[in-house]
Amino acid sequence: MDKIIYVIGIGEDGAGGLSPKSLGIVRDSEVLMGGERQLDFFADYSGQKIVLRGGLAAFAGKLEEVRQTRRTVVLASGDPLFFGIGGYLVQKFGPGQVEVIPHYSSVQLAFARLGDSWQDAELISLHGRPIRGLAQRMDGRRKIAILTDDRNTPARIAAYLLEFGMTEYEAFVCEQLGGPEEKCRFWELTELAELTAEQFSGLNILILRQKKAEAVLRRGFAYPDEAFAQRRPDKGLITKREVRALALSELNLSDTSVVWDIGSGSGAVAAECARIACSGQVYAVEKDGKNLPNMEANRLEFRADYEIIIAKVPQGLDSLPAPDAIFIGGSGGELAAIIALGADRLQPGGRMVITAITVETLQGAMTALEVAGMNPEITLLQASRGKPICGMTRFEGMNPVYVVRGEKPGGEQHSLHQSQRGK
Questions:
Q1: Beta strands 204-210 and 143-147: pairing type?
Q2: Is 344 exposed, middle or buried (0-12, 13-18, 19+ CB in 10 A)?
Q3: Same domain, yes or no: 119 and 235
Q4: What is the pLDDT of residue 202?
Q5: What are the Cα distances from residue 257, in Å, to 5, 47, 141, 280, 415?
Q6: What is the pLDDT of residue 127?
Q7: By the 8 A CB rule, do 165 and 304 touch?
Q8: Which terminus of the chain is less hemmed in, N or C, by CB atoms within 10 Å?
Q9: What are φ and ψ of residue 131, in 5° steps?
C-alpha cells in the first residue's frame, strides 16, 4: 500500500530549526529526498538519500517508486507551498497522499527583518522566469517581494526599474536568510544597479517599497491622446481615446492574456493592453520603423513592457505565441490574410477587434471574419469633443470609426485555459 509522503520545509538554520515533530518524521523515515543543500543538513541520516535531479517529472517518478514500500520524506526550502515543490506533489499524488509541514518562507523572514507587514505586498517570482512585464505588474504597488535567481539578480532588476523611471522605490535585499551568514540592507536603485551578480549570495530575496513622498499612481485606462508620444504633424497614427475605450472593452482581456496589436502605430493600444494584461504578453507589431521611437517612449512612459516587432504582417506572426486577443488598427493592405491567420492562431473563445474608417475596410473585415466563422458584430462610434468658443462650449465631431468584433467559438475552453495559465 502507498505510504503518506511528508514534505517538510527547512531553512538555512538546518535541522536545528525544525520542530520536534518534523525531526521525528525525518528520523523515522527510510528515504530522504530533496536538493543537495537540504540533504547536507542531515549528515548522519541512516536511510537512503536521493537528490532532486532531472526535473520535477523525473523526481516524482522516483518518489512514486520508493514511497510504495518505504516511509519517504521530501525536504524543500522554506514553505514548500510557496513557489515550491509542495503544490506540484499535492497535485500529482492527491491531497490525501501528501502532508506538507511548512517552515518560514523567505518572504516572511524578509519582511520580519524589514519590520513591515506583508499581507498587502505583491509577491512575484522571477526564479527561472523572464523579467519582461515586471514594470506593469509592479506599477502603483506599495510593496513588492521578488524571488530572484542567478540571472534576475537584484542588480539587474534595479537596472530594469530605472529604465522605466521607477525611482519611487527603495530596495531591501536579504541574503542567506535564517543562516549564520545572513545579511540584510537597504539600497537606492541607482547604487544597486551598479553592482554585479557576484556581489550577492545566490540565496537572496528583494523587497521594493515605495518612498512615501515619491509615490506614483496612474489609475484607469483610455488615457488622453496627448499623454502618448506620437508622430506630428501626421494624423491618424494613434487610436483615439474614445475608440481605445470601446476596443479594450471588446477585447475582454484578463491579467494573463496574450495580445497581438497589429498595425500598432505609436503603441497606444499596446500600452493600454499591457497594463490590463499585466501578467500576460503583449506584442506590438508595426511595419513602419519611423514609429519605433514613439513606441519605445510610450512603453517606458506607461510602464508597459510590451514587445515591439517591426515587420510587415502577416510575416513574423507565426513565431508569436497563440493569442487570446488580437487588435488590428492597421493592415497595410493585407487585412484578409491577417484575419485568416489570426483566426487560425487565436485561442478558442478569443476575440479579434478591428477598427476601420472606410466602408471598404469594414466590408473586408466583415467578409473575412464570416469566412473564418467568427460572426462579426459592428459598432459605429461617432463621438464629439467639447471645444471652447467665446466663453462657451461647442462640440466638434470626430471622424466616425467602425469597431468590428469577432469571437472564435469555444469560449468554455478559453475560460479554462485562462484560469490554468494564471496559476
A1: antiparallel
A2: exposed
A3: no
A4: 87
A5: 36, 47, 20, 5, 11
A6: 92
A7: no
A8: N
A9: -80, -20
pLDDT at 420: 53
Residue owning grid cell 521525528: 24
Check residue 318 and report its DSSP letter: G
Residue 204 structural domain: 107-214
- Judge if 33 and 64 occupy the same domain: yes
Q: Which of 104, 126, 145 is the last residue of a domain?
A: 104
In the block, residue with C-alpha cell 462657451: 392
If phi over 0 gives left and psi between -120 and 50 gives alpha, with beta otherwise, what is residue 23? alpha
CATH number of the domain residue 99 falls in: 3.40.1010.10
Domain check: are 205 and 250 in the same one? Answer: no
Residue at grid coordinates 485562462: 418
Choosing from 56, 89, 104, the residue where a domain stops is: 104
**What are the grid coordinates assigned to 296, written together?**
519605445
Residue-wise over 232-244: b if at least 16 C-beta within 10 A, else e? eeeeebbbbbbbb
The pLDDT of residue 1:
40
Instruction: Find the length of the chain.
Output: 423
| 135, 237: one domain | no
Q: State the pairing for strand pair 258-262/325-328.
A: parallel
Q: 3-state class of 391 per DSSP?
A: coil
Stretches in the chain below the pLDDT threshold 70: 1-2, 213-216, 233-237, 412-423
Cell 517552515, located at residue? 103
Question: pTM for the whole thing?
Answer: 0.88
Q: Which residue has the cell 500529482?
A: 92
What is the rounded distance in angstroms from the CA atom of residue 373 to the CA atom of residue 79?
Answer: 48
